Amino acid sequence: MEYLKDWDRETTILFLGMIVGSFVWVVSERIALGILMGFLTHLAFTAVYEACARTLGLPHLSYVKDFERNYLPRIMRMIPSLRLKRQV
Prior knowledge:
Blueprint: H1 2-5, H2 9-28, H3 31-56, H4 62-78
Helix pairs in contact: 2-3
């Protein structure tokens, strides 16, 4: 029962992604397709939740905050074409 006390938004999104991935795996009988669908579903649910969090003032997901703080600046430095260039 301790697990239910620690249940949060991240766990729900991960659980939903796993359920969809398992369903696709059972229906298609291909494990790679199930893993891919589970991963894509997790990304989609994360994006939808973050969009709602930004518009409705909900708390943000911890792994999204960590990604934006630590990894996104590195990615933006690697891709110079995405940076805004100063016009002279």
